[in-house]
Amino acid sequence: MAEQARLIDIYIMGRRCQVPEGLTILTALEYSGYRMVRGCGCRAGFCGACATIFNFLHDPQLRYDLACQKTVEPDMCLVQIPYFPARKATYDLEKTKADAEKIKTLYPDIVKCFGCNTCTKTCPQELEVMWFMTDALRGDIKAVAEKSFDCVMCGLCAARCPQGLVPYNVALLCRRLYGRYLSPNSAHLDQRIAEIESGKFDAEIEELKKADKKTLRQKYTGRDIEPAHDQAWE
Amino acid sequence: MYPAYLEENIHLVEDKRVRRLIEVIPRLGEDEKEALLRGYHPDYIKSSMRKLKVGINKGDATPVELADLLEGNSRIDPDKIDPSSPDYNVDVLVIGCGGAGASAALLAQENGARVLIATKLRLGDANTVGAQAGTQAADRPNDSPAQHYLDTMGGGHFENIPELVEVLVKDAPSAVKWLEKLGVNWDKAPDGSMHELSGGGTSIRRLHSARDYTGLEEMRVLRDELKNRKIDYIEFAPAIERILDDKGQIAGAILLNLETEELIVVRARAIIMTTGGIGRLHIQDFPTTNHYGATADGLVLAYRAGAKLIFIDTMQYHPTGAVFPLQILGQLVTEKVRTLGAQLVNANGEQFIMPLEPRDIVTSAIIRECRERHLGLKTPHGESGVWLDAPMIDVIRGAGTIARELPAMVRQYRRFDIDITREPILVYPTLHYQNGGIKIDTEGATNVPGLFAAGECTGGVHGRNRLIGNSTLELFVFGRRAGRAAARYAKDVKRGNPTLEHVRHWQKELKHAGLAGERPLSPKILPNYARTTRGHTKLEI
Ligand SMILES: Cc1cc2nc3c(=O)[nH]c(=O)nc-3n(C[C@H](O)[C@H](O)[C@H](O)COP(=O)(O)OP(=O)(O)OC[C@H]3O[C@@H](n4cnc5c(N)ncnc54)[C@H](O)[C@@H]3O)c2cc1C
Ligand code: FES
Asked: What is the pLDDT of residues B119-174, one digit of tens each?
């Protein structure tokens, strides 16, 4: 495919390689003969396995991104981070209270944040990492959950934090607390679970299970379809 | 950014929006669907399939890429490994850690088993993280598990195993609740009612989502819980062979340390296979949405241990894979885009299929539009595709909907200077899901004593075509059931002497069929995308 494309120079861990323009960092590595073991997961920007650091031959400023999503550029010097030893607190969610104190007990270091904003500048998902860390410090769990929601847990924020904080794990704790304790309860879900346990639907399902293909097909084609669009949109 | 000739065509798409706003494309009748499938669905290309010559499914047809591996040679030499001196000794070994593996491990531990997880890449590097659209559960008042049952059977062309579907739909609401109790953040209204969408082939809105990061949200919570519960795991250690005992029961597995290339022997009373899908085999050269490790290893290992497979002749090609830009070729454009109101449009700016037909139907329609009617569009790299008119979503539901509901998609396209709130997306079918797999019962048990399985590597629940949102659901329903059942089994089983005799037997059978020399080593473990430069041979060091 890319054989006709213009070739550009990139530097993989210092070694010069020529690759067609338009490849992602991940496919450029493969084009250069590397078979990935670490540093490659979903290949689609969802799993955070492919955290990458790079700069340019004539610009030492470090940059960060996901190798599977970032397109290579001329004179890029790059290396992948196969693993980063970040701390994760262990806890029993059922016995954990959703409050500021708990977050500080599990991650006492968060008070050490001095607001350098490196985490935010590092995040390949462009999340406001420093702001949600401030929210975590204040105990605003909902705000952390919302602001950190799109985190793919690539770990770059932790790798770069000069104070050794682990924003992505702090955020995960907050989201779990939010989901478990603070999000509004879904009464219709509880009710349905109770109905199923009481056997309310058993007879109807039993009948469907026994039905021959022809009857099923008739029921299927004749079923009502709820319109996808006129839903109560907030 | 699109090249000029595509920009030009986009104007046509925009001009026809007003008309398309009021237009209703009727659903196809069952006969029309059948004809469309037969004419255009990749499963119906006879030359792409081959009948298996060895093993318990002998005579069954399956894509040649999978057939090669199922008939493959073992990677181990049974004479060089002593299965009776293990490196690990556990009750339950979970192989693979996506949503199914994590659920199974948690429940096995809860039921008193010593659990070890062995996984090919990192914990949670799996198809599960890629799931964007959502998870089905019939919990709204106007919905019912019976309705969910009917939708699922219809989507699967009525060939699904009824008992499995029954369990799927009845366990669904409690699976959603289980995840919430573990801290999953579902999209909800302030009064607590779930924000649910419809999907291809569902008659009622019942997709539970977490923005368009549903699988990621499910997976990161489960992974965190595995760590909180201190369940042992080994990463970068795929299973490459099974150990049986002299009674024909599961007795463990051989793992490969991908970095040191050492073999690891695990003794286990029961195994739960949760190895996921097949996309990286690139059946019929299709690109895929699947993660790097989706190479059908579980099917191969189970098959060699004598487990029965079903529906292995049917793959799911997701109708909307990205074809432009090249960097994201084959990656998923979630069905949620259509769920929210985006339409499929050809080069004339016209719709050619109701966008929420089941997946196999929409896929066939897109292939017909490009191949037969020549109404697709060509990308600069020579791929064909049709438009998925995303901006319609904001037209229908109001400005800001796309940004709120599809942050991952917006982000992905923005990297390539395409604003999906204003411009349509070019799509073509991509290999997405393996509909069939290891045959299980309602507890995840297979025909091999001690071998359990759950998730995408199993078959039966979805018949010949899976509906959106039923796969992630299946992980939690059957993952948990298999975990529980395996732990109970492990308590009671009377163990025999571990052996690798079945591997010798398998190799003999291959030789006998004249295949040993022709077939590759399997399981495949990882695809090889590394380009070998200028034909130089690689040196073993
Ligand atoms: C991009 C995408 C979007 C999707 N969207 C949806 C959706 O919206 N709704 C829905 O319901 N479904 C969706 N699906 C389908 C669904 O996500 C998957 O079918 C499901 O997550 C599979 O889960 P699993 O646990 O069975 O397998 P996986 O999540 O794939 O996990 C398998 C695990 O096994 C490991 N493994 C493989 N081989 C070995 C081996 N030999 N030894 C050890 N470990 C091994 C893998 O590395 C991986 O960790 C989507 C799938 C994809 C790819
Ligand atoms: S490989 Fe998953 S985010 Fe890049």
From this structure: 999 999 999 999 999 999 999 999 999 999 999 999 999 999 999 999 999 999 99
Which residues, in sequence order, are bridge partners of residue B135?
B208
Neighbours of B537 (CB within 10 A): 6
Given a contact cutoff of 8 angstroms between Cβ atoms, the answer to whether B267 and B249 are in contact is no
The rounded distance, in Å, linking the Cα atoms of A115 and B238 is 42
DSSP string for B456-482? GGEESTTTTSPPTTHHHHHHHHHHHHH
**Tokens 């004419």 sit at which residue?**
B39
Strand partners, B499: B244
pLDDT score of A229 more than 70 = no
What are the strands of the beta sheet with A51-56, ordered from one edge?
Answer: A15-20, A7-12, A76-80, A51-56, A59-66
H helices of B281-406, where? Answer: 297-304, 336-339, 359-371, 392-397, 401-405
Asked if omega into B523 is within 30° of 0 (cis), the reply is: yes
pLDDT above 90 (res B536):
no
Chain region(s) in chain B for CATH 3.50.50.60: 88-314+435-500
**CA nearest A153 in B: which residue?**
B220
The mean pLDDT value for B8-13 works out to: 97
Question: B4-40+316-431 has which fold?
Answer: Flavocytochrome C3; Chain A, domain 1 (3.90.700)
* Residue carrying structure tokens 């591997």: B503
In this structure, which amino acid lies at residue A114?
Answer: F
Residue range B316-332, pLDDT digits in tens: 999 999 999 988 999 99
- Supply φ then ψ for residue A100, to 5 degrees: -60, -40
Contacts of residue A138, Cβ cutoff 8 Å, sequence gap at least 6: A100
CB B453 within 8 A of CB B446: yes
pLDDT of residue A2 exceeding 60, the answer is no
Q: How far is B210 from chain A (nearest CA, A)?
A: 9
Phi-psi group of B45: left, alpha or beta (phi > 0 → left; psi -120 to 50 → alpha; rest → beta): beta
Q: Do B192 and A1 touch (CB under 8 A)?
A: no
Range A7-80 has CATH code 3.30.1330.60: no
Task: Please give the model's pTM, rounded to 2 decimal places.
Answer: 0.96
Cβ atoms of B158 and B221 closer than 8 Å = no
Q: Name residues contacting ligand 2 (CB within 6 A).
A: A 40-43, 45-50, 66-68, 152
Tell me the CA–centroid distance for residue B130 and ligand 2, in Å: 10
The predicted structure's pLDDT at residue B199: 87
Joined tokens for residue B500 = 């690798």
**What is the pLDDT averaged over residues B308-322?**
97
Residue among B261, B416, B357, B409 at smallest CA distance from A221: B357
Domain A93-182, architecture per CATH: Orthogonal Bundle (1.10)
ipTM: 0.96
Query: Domains of chain A: which residue ranges?
Result: 7-80, 93-182, 197-233
What does the block give as tokens for B399?
């400005």
B11 part of the active site: no
Band (pLDDT 50/70/90 cuts) for residue B266 is: very high
Average pLDDT over residues A156-165: 96
Instruction: Kindly state the helix (H) or strand (E) to which residue A110 belongs, with its residue range.
Output: none
Report the gap between the CA of B93 and the closest CA in chain A (Å).
22
Residue B450 identity (one-letter amino acid): G
